[in-house]
């Protein structure tokens, strides 16, 4: 996709160029060398016209690629399928909020601060719905296009420039209706055409989603006779009726069906669960429910009892089509809490309901909680997954599982699971795409091999590749789920190199679950913290802190246990003996035998030695050596 850059110099000569959308996004992150964009903002208002004459700036046409005709007029060459929504008159915080809100809908191709720094421009992808042009107008469109030279190829079809204008107007109207529901400020309603444009913006952090979905638009043309009825006087205009297919009777019945369904039900497509939901307008207090086969058949019976000739497939086509608006329950909930924070630290308050002697727990939990919420927001733009996993350690009956389940509000409770079959890799990946929080209950039952392999890998994923049920090919889905874990044993971390991912906390008493969390304030605080760019991941110093803390919860191999039977780390290197891992291993093998050591790998044994707290290590030209001190009882045993 390419955008058109237009510049009229001081002599009013037209200069035209095209750039890819990716190039445009990179271009607006920084100003020109002479600071032209930033300077133009200073002159915005009554002096901007004078400034533009002295210092001409590029004007961007996002909807189409244009070329110049012989008279220096712009003529459409290729339609992009993009319209621009503008929300103006914003303060700094409102600018950021509108940009974030724009990311909720999957039709958003890009969102960035506009040229005045007081507006946000949202580029929305649109596409012409099938059979959008009436057959009886095809000849008129052909004649008009031949006269105006406005044909353009898009997706293998031809589109007249005037028809592109209609598509842009209808697309802008439809997009405005959709986006206005999530944007608190009014969207500008200026006249729209394929030649709508804006001056070069400047935004260091624009939002860009190359995988944006196109919003299907049906331009509804009607012929307006202006005089002699020649092609120059033929115009297409939009109406509020659905586009008619070839058979008027089919169109009438379809309209009756849709009108009936809209009058009796509300529909939304849940893009997290992947199905359409409905609520019955005639049933008070009914919650949203999936449109399953039973509900579908009930709707069909009501349609037929109303005298409308329709079958199950007719109802199914509508409720499963892209005519149903998209609903994201996760982002909908999060944005409902936006700007509600009372300024108190509710996240750390929740952490304090977990009694522990771990001095880092409150800060660790705070960072992890932000990472969990951020993971829900990232979607396809995420580069890294939330790699931290709180690990609650205690005997049974300390309310660990209940605490984990209560982290999600009732509105998002569908996204919690504590029943993950870690050995079923397909199920794990599917739940990482659909769930919000996965509790690795009974973590001690996960084998060391799985900890060091599969689990270590999936915790770092930002997306998962799975095949839908009955799907034909593997698809890439954003990972939504974060992990939390519980265990009844203290020696559970089998992977020394992967222990940095676990936030181990040993409970000193039962967790207080008597008061439900204040969900509104919890998530409002998280949204505000993320808005202020607080870190939602652990830096190098914190990671080292986690590694050191976790050493007390690591699984001790037989070789390590035998090491402590015969040696201890030398507190003073002058009193200890420097030995290689091979020498230590050979000594233990001679004392207890290979069968009791349960390993023949000196390399693995060396890795374990490197993680022993207080054991000094040095690297020589012959390899690594460790400063050890033989235990007294074993020195005596060796002399008798």
Topology at a glance:
Layout: E1 2-8, E2 14-20, H1 21-27, H2 36-42, H3 48-54, E3 59-61, E4 64-68, E5 74-79, E6 82-87, H4 92-102, E7 108-113, E8 120-128, H5 138-148, E9 152-154, E10 157-159, H6 161-180, E11 198-199, E12 207-208, E13 215-217, H7 248-264, E14 265-270, E15 275-280, E16 289-290, H8 293-305, H9 312-319, E17 326-327, H10 329-336, H11 346-351, H12 361-378, E18 389-393, H13 400-405, E19 416-417, H14 425-434, E20 437-440, H15 448-458, E21 463-466, E22 475-478, E23 482-487, E24 502-506, H16 519-531, H17 540-550, H18 558-566, E25 567-569, E26 577-580, H19 581-592, H20 594-597, H21 602-610, E27 617-620, E28 623-630, H22 632-639
Parallel strand pairs: 8-13, 14-17, 18-23, 18-24, 19-20, 20-23
Antiparallel strand pairs: 1-2, 1-3, 3-11, 4-5, 6-8, 7-8, 7-12, 9-10, 14-15, 15-16, 21-22, 25-28, 26-28, 27-28
Helix pairs in contact: 12-16, 18-19
Can you walk through the features of this model?
- Helix 12 crosses helix 16 (519-531) and helix 18 (558-566) crosses helix 19.
- By secondary structure, the protein is of the alpha+beta class.
- Strands 6, 7, 8, 12 and 13 form a 5-stranded mixed sheet that branches. Strands 19-20-23-18-24 form a 5-stranded parallel sheet. It has a 4-stranded antiparallel sheet with strand order 2-1-3-11.
- It is globular, with a radius of gyration of 32 Å.
- Residues 131-157, 221-246 and 635-640 have low confidence and may be disordered.
- The longest helix is centred in the first third of the chain and has 20 residues, at 161-180.
